[in-house]
Amino acid sequence: MCATGNRFSNCLEQYKKTIEKDERSGGGGEPPELLCPLCRGQVKGWTVVKDARKYLNSKKRACTKQNCLFFGSYKQLKRHVKADHPRDKPRAVDHVMEEKWKKLEVESDRNDVISTVMSLTPGARIDGDYVIEPYNNAHRHHTWVIPRRYRVRTGFVSR
């Protein structure tokens, strides 16, 4: 996760805010299940890697302000934003784009599940929520059986 600042890619800060907000509201003791934006795995904590941060901060970035042509490292960009765009706020969330993104994530998760199922059970068919596997050679008189149910629509597998 990146922790570059409150105006840029701030995955780590957003994660911390969510955890703090949940703790203040008395979230029932169990933290929310947040997923890594890269691998979709559960986030269990964080570690700051100084060399990685130094490298990422040195990479060139463009100003996100429309019609601004500034391009520089993280420190230079931070100074530029404070000097040239002091009153600008981060863009408001576009709810239509947010909904499209959620649908894309669900579709991606669904495709991952289907790919996993198909690679683990060669010859299987997916029919709605069901995975239909072919019988082995001992049961040639039957062609297909439904051994387990997968909830494919939500992107999560349950057995």
Question: Could you describe the 3D structure shown?
Answer:
- The protein has 159 residues and is α+β, with helices and mostly antiparallel strands.
- It has three domains: 1-48, no CATH class; 60-91; 95-149, no CATH class.
- It has four helices and five strands.
- It has helices spanning 11-24, 50-58, 74-84, 95-120, and strands at residues 61-62, 71-72, 125-127, 130-134, 144-149.
- A three-stranded antiparallel sheet has the order 3-4-5, covered by helices on one side. Strands 1-2 form a two-stranded antiparallel sheet.
- Mean pLDDT is 73; it is low at 141-159.
- Pfam families: DUF1644 (PF07800).
- InterPro entries: DUF1644.
Spell out the helices and strands N to C.
HHEEHHEEE
Which parts are unreliable, with pLDDT below 50 for 5 consecutive residues or more? 141-159
- Tally of helical runs: 4
- How is the main sheet built? 3 strands, antiparallel
The rough form would be described as elongated
Topology:
Layout lengths: L10 H14 L25 H9 L2 E2 L8 E2 L1 H11 L10 H26 L4 E3 L2 E5 L9 E6 L10
Antiparallel strand pairs: 1-2, 3-4, 4-5
Key structural traits:
elongated; single chain; 3 domains
Write a brief caption for the model.
The protein is α+β, with helices and mostly antiparallel strands and 159 residues long. Helices cover 38% and strands 11% of the residues. Strands 3-4-5 form a three-stranded antiparallel β-sheet, with helices on one face. It has a two-stranded antiparallel ribbon with strand order 1-2.
